[in-house]
Each structure stands twice: as C-alpha cells, then as structure tokens.
Amino acid sequence: MTTEQSPRQPWLHDLRIIVDGNATALSATTGDVSPGAGHGLFVDDVRLLSRLELTVSGETPSAIASEAGGATAEFFGAARGLGDEGPDPTVEVRRVRTLEGATLHEDVTVTSRAARTVRATLRLELGSDGLAIARVKYGTFDAPSVAPELTDGVLTFTTERHSTRVDFDPAPTRLEVATDRAVVSHDVVVEPGESQTLRVTVRASRTAASEFDADPGGAAVTWGDIRVTSDEPRLAPLVAQSTDDLRHLLLRDPLEPADVFAAAGSPWYLTLFGRDSIWAARMMLPFGTELAGGTLRALARRQGTRHDADSAEQPGKIAHEVRRTAYTGSPRKGDLALPPLYYGTVDATALWVTLLVEAWRWGLPEAEVRVLLPNLRAAVAWLTSDGQPDDDGFLKYLDTTGHGLANQGWKDSGDSMRMRDGSVAAAPIALVEAQAYAVEALLGAADLLDALGEDGADTARVEAGALRERVRRAFWVEGGAGRYLAMALDGSGKPVDGLGSNMGHALGTGTLDAAEAAAVGETVTGDELLDTFGVRTLGTGNGGFNPIGYHTGSVWTHDTAIVALGLAREGLTGAAARVAQALVASAEAFDYRWPELYSGLPMLGRPSPYPASCRPQAWSAASAGAILTVALGLRADLPGGVLHVEPVLPLPFGALRVDGLRLGGVPFTVSVSRDGEVEVTGVPQEVRISRGA
C-alpha cells in the first residue's frame, strides 16, 4: 500500500479528515473544501463534492482552531471585519461537520460577542467534478466540473454513478447556479450574545452499481463500553480516539452485509485489504470477535481458486485488496495497474489462518469456525505448495506482469528491501516475517484441527517444523550490528542483511528458540532500531537510512505494536514495556489519532509527521488494542477454559483498569494495581484465570 502523493497536493497531515464507512471528507484547517487542493467529499472512491467554500460578508473567516476525529470535525474562526475594534475576535464562525455514511451534515453558526447587532451574509460555493479518488491522489484534476441542477428549489449534482442532493435549513436567501458551481447566500441578523445557524445537508445516493458497493458497518461491533483508567494520562484518550476512528472505518461486505471488516485507511484505502484488515481485527480480539468473524468470512468469499498471473490469484490464496474498479498508480510512473480483485500479497494467507485460530481461542463460535474449515485447508495447501515456487521451501513473491506490486509484504514500496550497504535487493524475495507468519499459522491450524477432531494436524506440524528449521539455517547473519535476522533472502538466496524491523515480527510466532528470541529482542530494541517514539523500519547504520523514508527509517505505528506483542509473548517483558511506552509517547503529538507512519527523530521533543500518511488508518488505530494486550499480558484459550493475564513488568503505565474486554461475547474487566496485583471480574465461572505463561 503506497502513500505517494502528487507534489501539487497539500500534505494529508495538514488536512482535517473525517470518515464513516464508504465516505470520507477532506478539507483545509479552515473547513473549506477546494477542488485544486485534493479536498472533497468522497463516496465509493468518487469525489462528489469538490467545493464547499465559505465567506461571511465577503470575508474568509480567520482560522483559530480546528479538530477532527472519527466522523466529526469542528472549525472555529472569526469574521474579524465584522467585529468590534480591538484584538479580540467578537464575531465567531463555527463549522461543525459530521458524516453519517454517504450523508454529510454541516452546521455554520455565527455568534456575536460584540456589543451591537451583527448583520452578515453567509455565502457558500458548492461544486462537484466526479473524479476518481486515485486521480485526486495524484493531482490529476482534468475532469470538467459537474453542472449543478436546480429544480423546484432542490440542488443536485449528477455524476456517473451517484446523485448528490443538497438541502438547506433554513431555506437560503438566494440560491443560484452556474455551469461549474452553485452559490448559496443566507442573510443573518445576530443580536449580542446570540447565534444563527445554517445547516447544509449533502446526501449522496447510488444510481449504478460498482464492483464493491460497501456500506458503513460501525454499528456491528460492541465497543461502546470500552473504558481505560490509568496512571498514564495519555492512554485513555488514545484508546477512546482509536476505537472511535476504527469504528468509523468499518464496512459491510456487499456480498453479505451482516459481516463487517475494517477498511485500511482514509482517504485512499476505504476498502478491504487482506493484510491490513486482518491485523486490525486481530489486535481488537480482546474486545470481541465480531470484527474477526466478518473479516475472515469476507476474505474467504474471495479466496483464490485458480492460477491467474494478471491478478496474482492462486488456489487457496487470500486477496490483497478489493476495489470498486481497476486501480492505476501515479501517471508519472505508469507502472501500477491492478484489477479490482488483486492477490499480490505473500503474507495475508498465513495471517488469515492465524486470525481464525486466535478468534476461536477468544470465543468465535465453533459453528462459525467449522464453516471456514474448507478455506483453512485451502490456505494451508497454499502455504505448503503454491506459495513456495521452488525447491528451497520458502514463501516468495515475484510480480511477473510488470504492472503489479514489486514488493508484496507489508513493506511494499519498491526500495524497501535493502542490503546493509543500501543497495536494493533483487527479486524474487523471501521475507523473514512471511516465513514466521507461516510457521505460526501451521502450528495454529494443527491445534485447531486437533481440537475439532479433524485430520491434517500432524502434517501441518511437520511442515511448520521443517520451515522453522529452514528459517533458522538461512536467515541469521553476522556483522557490525552483531548477530541478527536478515529482512529477507534475495533472488539468489543471499540474505538481505539490512537491519530492519522485520525481525521483530518473528517474535512470538514459534519460529525462534528462547536464545534466538532474546537476541532478536535485544537487536530490535537496540539503539539502531528503537528510538524515542517507536521502532524504526530500517536501522540508522544502514545505507539508505532516512528517518522520514516510507520504509527506510520511519516509524510505523502497527509495526511497533507488533514488535511489542512479540516481545511480550516471548516473555521479554522489560523490552515489551519500553516499546509500548515509546509508542504511547508518540500519540499526543498527533492529537491521539495515530497516523500510518511518522518520523521518530524528535523535533522539540515530539515526533515529526510523515506528511502523506493516511490518518485515520485501521491497523494504526487498532494498535491501541495491541498496547492494552501487551500491558495486561492477555492471552485467551476459551476452548481450553483458560484466560491468561500476566501484566508486563515493569508496569509500563502504572495502575491500569480496562473495562469492556470480551471473552466469548461476555464482558469482563481487568485491573492492575501499582504494585502489580491483578483483579479480573466478569469472566464466566468455568474459565480459569492463569497468572503465568
């Protein structure tokens, strides 16, 4: 998933972004939506509103403050030309914008703090161009404006697949249309201390079907009672913001609307992404299995059944992404053209299997698990056959089309696989984390098959053991940074010896023995990789290191969270605590709305934004769940009647209480005192609480 943007665009970090399912709205910090700046209301990946610009009596309000979270944004400004003389703003202009699926509500409120009556004219200019979101992303604003239609006082914009209606309450004083925009004027008289509000409602409806018409799914999850109380004051607002953002990223599977999954991120990736959606569901398992079940089934419905080079489909393979139409990348490069259903991922298949196993352990009903057993068997077959294209037995990827993804792990940029000297590794690539995910998946599948009385468990364990030994023989390297796991093997079988965070994903998978895990833990939390605010994707001593490079030195939220999870699972609790603390320390700088990635090198004690980063983003938001899992030492085995609760020591956040956890759908609470005493309440009596590993 690449976040490249046109140099003509404002940086995403500088915009205010809200989202609800298949709709997202981007604007300047003033609240204005301008067509040439990449702003807009996007529904189903189409820009249905490209202009929403406000003036008050001919003046653009001066911006004072703005905030965005979940599906709501607020903009606070002042009409300084209408106020009393002096430095204080006395005529306030507030815009509150809310998304409810494909409907946008905007309240524009003028408040007088002046000592006199204020008379003003609110003027809104609205426009549409129907551009595909990919064209907006790359700054290709070459579509003509959609001519507004005004019929019996009703304003509409009609694009190829949508009709967008705009209503006003109260009715505006004047409403005029031109070829490229509608102009709305509303006269207000505001007495001292009073306010007047104009509500604008923009409703989009589909007039034609697309490949993937998914609707919002936030109502399907039971996260309303999640509460965090902690000595660490940043933790509670972080969890609250993250769960709110993630809820608004949920979509319903158009093939079965009862099933929901997390769209990867706003604004560019409001769709099903195998890897991203799986990790988001996995990190949120302690809060219920609804998201995991929906994600598993949505991907199972699209599991590969044939060999097709253009889409990278293979039997048993889990898809990388599903889009409403074909996707093309930057016109400056012209090298990316993906079909609507694309399978270019080496790791989603193993991650799908592990999500099924962990969801079962957290209480996904057995009947739902059994329905997915044919998909499990197909995925295991891919892991042990089609995913291993030659006789060395490693999972590999190679785009043979010339227009697919060159790198097909989570570090999917073209320059992410680096040798220690900075040179880029040649394909085909065998990623260390892909092998580790496969080991974990095969071991988990064996446990699940055994527990359900199904055959195939012994074969899966043998395959896992053989792959484990191959990894341990081939991926260890020695150099100036000590002994560590290479990021990958290149096309000649040579270790890609760049020092990267990839090795941290092998922790907790069953791939390493205790000594090897300790060595990885020491390296991934050493000075080269762990900085003040998270784990770097590439070490500082590596050729090509760039602290704000996409995969060449930046910090990714989910990557750091996965490293923390792995350290905790290996019993390396001190290291896990340090990583968790570093990640939480970054949150305040981003108003508790974690971005996809950022630069960990501090600027005045704060991390620096990666300016083109998606925010909100699913596996970043879900990382809050991972951090709580680490802090509490949670691990479930409901079929075995056990809940493991073993807080990491030293306690990373002091005293901690988490309400709204769920085991098999039953809510429970875990409290940890400052001296490490644990109290668990609400768990069914038949479940034993284990305080050890």
How does this structure look, described?
The chain is of the alpha+beta class and 693 residues long. The protein folds into 2 domains: 12-199, Distorted Sandwich (Beta-galactosidase, Chain A, domain 5); 218-672, Glycosyltransferase. The chain contains 14 helices and 39 strands. The strands form 12 sheets. It has an 8-stranded antiparallel sheet with strand order 6-7-8-9-16-13-12-11. A hairpin with a 2-residue loop joins β11 (149-151) and β12 (154-158). The model has no long low-confidence stretch (mean pLDDT 94).
Question: Would you kindly provide a brief summary of this structure?
Answer:
With 693 residues, this protein is an alpha+beta fold.
Question: What structural keywords apply?
Answer:
eight-stranded antiparallel beta sheet, 39 strands, 693 residues, Glycosyltransferase, alpha+beta, Beta-galactosidase, Chain A, domain 5
